[in-house]
From TrEMBL:
Signal peptide: none annotated. Residues 7-123 form the Gfo/Idh/MocA-like oxidoreductase N-terminal domain. It holds the Pfam family GFO_IDH_MocA. InterPro entries: Gfo/Idh/MocA-like_OxRdtase_N, Gfo/Idh/MocA_Oxidoreductase, NAD(P)-bd_dom_sf. This is Gfo/Idh/MocA family oxidoreductase. Transmembrane segments: none annotated. GO terms for molecular function: nucleotide binding.
Length: 388
């Protein structure tokens, strides 16, 4: 009898993990899925909803089971590095939510664990797989933007009322959503950073971290590039709705994120120089501004996953009413899952392997160090890829 085709995947942490579960279940190269969560009630509810039989309340028990080839880690951020290392040392491939880790030493641990294990690691950075990034990438590749001359990334989110481990979280240590698009677009890494904290956290928000700042702002210089990246982050005491995005400015055109986070992208095209603008008599080059809804490109997805780039419905296996699910993070989830699964099946590094993930995470860690030091310049370490 032939062996069943495809890989088996365990999803660990069903808070955010439930968003990815239907994608894995639909993937044509995934033969079996397990779920893991320490909350037995949530484990039972989600597993019943999706008809998943394999269930664990203990990560170690699942890792000891040879039945599982790969693990998607969606546990609280302070546990990311330890669980990722445990997954790789157990001889399983590992996908992990952002950020990779909270300290530089832990980034190195994960990089070394991936190399020693021979397995694949992928940091599941949503911003470089969303429809907005794909649109910007296409505009850059086509020449419409010209040369990139400026970048501003931002992530503002109020974490009051979130679980205890978020209290006092240093905003810059979660900066990959705001910074990764720049690094992916330019194909380089951060050389150094100068950052400052802004405001003072109230005592009841301090938590376990060495962080006095509700907001942080940083300037990032890139290796081999004259583009300067500006990033601003806040998790507390900033009165604005959630936004997670970036502006990319070129010498021919620019793309800017919508102020309300949900609207179309704002695209500015620089027009030819007029000696004198006839209506006003002013000089300088004008720009035309358009609003653009970036399209969903599913050309690189299996047909079974195409529906997950937009909002979709889940028909529960336990007979409950249909559930509406949002395609969050720019419809990136099926693209992320497909890249992870494909890298395993094709036996190649993932697009965001451990050295790349470390290079995208380290700048935020160094930025917080700079902010604590009053804006001192901090060099960001390099992480050799060793891709094979």
């Amino acid at each position: 009898m032939s062996e069943p085709s495809g890989i088996s995947v365990a999803v660990v942490g069903l808070g955010f993990g439930e968003d990815f579960l239907p994608v894995y279940l639909a993937h044509p190269q995934v033969r079996e899925v397990a779920v893991v969560d320490t909350d037995e009630r949530r484990l039972t509810t989600v597993a019943d909803r999706f008809g998943v039989e394999a269930r664990y309340t203990d990560v170690a028990e699942m890792l000891a089971d040879d039945r599982w080839d790969a693990v998607h880690v969606l546990v609280p951020v302070p546990l990311h590095a330890d669980v990722a290392v445990a997954v790789l040392e157990a001889g399983k491939h590992c996908a992990c939510a952002v950020p990779m880790a909270l300290e530089l030493d832990d980034l190195t641990r994960v990089v070394e664990a991936e190399r020693a294990s021979g397995k694949r690691y992928m940091m599941m950075e949503t911003t470089v797989y969303g429809r907005e990034y794909r649109y910007v990438r296409d505009q850059l590749d086509s020449g419409r933007l010209g040369t990139v001359t400026g970048y501003r990334g931002f992530h503002h989110q109020n974490l009051d009322g979130y679980p205890e481990y978020w209290r006092g979280y240093p905003p810059m240590k979660y900066s990959t959503h705001a910074l990764a698009p720049l690094l992916a677009l330019t194909g380089t890494t951060v050389e150094s950073v100068v950052a400052h904290g802004s405001g003072t956290l109230t005592e009841d928000r301090r938590g376990r971290f060495d962080n006095p700042f509700p907001a942080e702002k940083g300037l990032f210089t890139l290796r081999g590039s004259d583009v300067l990246g500006e990033v601003e982050m806040s998790f507390f005491q900033v009165a604005r709705p959630y936004i997670e995005g970036y502006d990319v400015h070129g010498d021919r055109a620019s793309v800017e994120w919508p102020a309300d986070h949900e609207g179309p992208l704002v695209v500015h095209d620089l027009l030819p120089l007029e000696e004198v603008q006839p209506e006003t008599g002013l000089r300088g080059r004008r720009a035309r501004t358009d609003l653009v809804v970036p399209p969903d490109d599913v050309s690189d997805l299996p047909r079974e996953l195409a529906r997950f780039v937009a909002d979709f419905e889940v028909v529960p296996a336990d007979g409950g009413p249909a559930l509406h699910r949002e395609a969050a993070h720019g419809g990136s989830h099926p693209h992320l899952v497909h890249e992870f699964v494909s890298a395993i099946v094709e036996d190649r590094p993932t697009a965001i392997d451990a050295p790349t993930a470390a290079a995208w995470t380290a700048p935020g860690i160094c930025a917080h160090e700079s902010a604590l030091a009053g804006g001192a310049r901090v060099e960001v370490p390099q992480f050799p890829t060793g891709r094979s």
